[in-house]
Amino acid sequence: MNIFKEFEGKLEGLFEGVFLRAFKSGVQPVELGKKLVRELEGHKTIGVSRVYVPNRYEVGLSVKDYARFESYQAVMATELENLLISYVKEKGYAVLDRPRIRMVEVPRLREGEFWIKCAIEGELPPERPEEPHAPGIIQRGPAAGPAVLELLDTGEVSPLFDLGGDTISIGRTGENGIVLPDPNVSRLHARVERRGERYYVVDQGSTNGTWVNEKRVDEAGLSEGDVIRLGTTRLMFRRSNP
Description:
Blueprint: H1 3-15, H2 17-22, H3 29-42, E1 45-46, E2 51-52, E3 56-61, H4 63-70, H5 73-91, E4 100-105, E5 114-119, E6 147-151, E7 160-162, E8 167-171, E9 178-179, E10 190-195, E11 198-203, E12 210-212, E13 215-217, E14 219-222, E15 227-230, E16 233-239
Parallel strand pairs: 3-4, 8-9
Antiparallel strand pairs: 1-2, 3-5, 6-7, 6-16, 8-10, 10-11, 11-14, 12-13, 12-15, 15-16
Helix pairs in contact: 1-3, 1-5, 3-5
């Protein structure tokens, strides 16, 4: 389903007929959503290994439109934020934290007019362009162990991370065995443990969670071809000697 139709359907489900009556004139919620996405696209920051997009948005509305939105403003802002999150995931962009939208009343605007301002708030994580195998990704050692993690979505030859030891940590900072410069990855996000002949991924209390085959897990056994997602980064578990 188109993300804008899905967004509109969610609002109609929340407010039922009240929603339809309230927004027959003036600024339409879907119109705001489309403009927010255009502003996001127009204010991207291209990094070595990631495309960063704004996480703070301000929407200026006329007096009449602001009054019309006022009763629904909190829910509306949340659903618009969710719309942006869906778009960011669809495009594979990076965002420093959850997008936040603030609506303000602007007396000089006429009914139906609005403006949107956006910015990246916060410091972008450092990237490491000197790494030859994949920009911004640190690989520790050759992939010679009994299992590896393959970095997906690189657009080139996929780096392999060796899982030859009993435990390897994964996170955003340099002390980890596998370093992922993804702002949606926690400093210490997860670890992979070898227990006998099996491997397990264990979440370390991360902010955005650890996902295996798009199911959020605290701990999960890994099988050939399983895809682990940390933030927006995906890693495939593979047996190097099946």
